[in-house]
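If you are new to this repository, start here. Below is one unmodified record pulled from the training split, so you can see the exact layout before writing a loader.
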Amino acid sequence: MTMSKVRYPGRPGNRVSPVDIAQALKIQRLKSLQKKVITTAILGGVRPVSITVTEKAADEVRRVWQDQKFDESMFLRIGIAAGGCSGFSYSLKPDNQFDDTSDSKIDCHGVSVVVDKKSALYLEGTTLDWHDGLDRRGFTFDNPNVVKSCGCGSSFQA
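And here is the target side for that same chain:
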């Protein structure tokens, strides 16, 4: 294994491997997620969710809503569920049940989006987009919290 020239401060001669650096970054991300959970628990509220839905994705959601003849009270629930080959999988579904104590609601390009408290921690900073090309068609998630994902991209580890 090749060792980098990065050294631990105060420990001359101790080199850090790229694996050590990756593990340190993973621990830092986990600590950041833990702080968010603790802050939410202390405040007793629901943090505003930081998810972006692109215009193309919002257009596709509206098209599906029209095709299915959903009424105006329906919104898009984005979440995560345990499962998939990497640990978590994304969930997109129409819903009309909103809980003030555990859900956050935002409006993106005219589409109401709801995320529950648990999912919001893993989806922080995520962008939902719609891809329509020869190679693939469907919703895609660009999630900065992902540490590892499966080959098909439908499940992830954070």
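Two things worth knowing about this chain: The domain at 52-157 is CATH 2.60.300.12 (Hypothetical Protein Aq_1857; Chain: A;). The helical segments are 18-43, 55-68, 117-123.
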